[in-house]
Amino acid sequence: MGKFDRYKIDLKGMQADSCKYEFVLDNLFFADIDGPEVQKGKVNVVLVVKKTSRAFELNFQTDGMVWVPCDRCLDDMEQLVSSTDKLLVKFGHEYAEEGDNLIVIPEEEGEINVAWFMYEFVALAIPMKHVHAPGKCNKTMTSKLSKHIRTTPEENMAEDAFLPEEETGLVNEETETQVDPRWDELKKILDNN
Q1: Whole-angstrom Cα distance, residue 13 to residue 182?
Q2: Where are the domains of the chain?
Q3: pTM assigned to the model
Q4: Alpha helices in 76-148 (DSSP H)
Q5: CA distance 123 to 30
């Protein structure tokens, strides 16, 4: 028996028009799947499979908590995840992913393993930016970061002294009147036409 056998859904042998499955994705699941976005968590997934005339509709409701690194201090932080996702599965000759949510599985196999799909739904439910609540970040890291953040207008002016004139918005009158001589030659070509 493989690590993810319990996540196989037998579509070919499905007797009822609708079946409900419940899964708990825990630290062991995330360690086994070894995905880059999530390493630890506890997520409940309710899967409802409906048989239609042409395909199977898999509706996933995902709710739980994952631990991800804080973007600011890099310590692990709890992140709530919640999503509702849908897959359409139909039988064909060989496995294929068509479009965003259409999966074709071989009819002779008649089953689909939903472990990786559930992992992807959890990973996609994580917000792009994840930062601790104010005051909850690692104190050592925030003190090191604060040394590198500009906080006063004087520091901004000192930094502008090292920027090219175009970026500061200050233009010297001499540079404004000077024109690259190559442009004059190009203008002559235009004037001849």
Answers
A1: 77
A2: 5-132, 140-192
A3: 0.70
A4: 115-125, 139-146
A5: 11
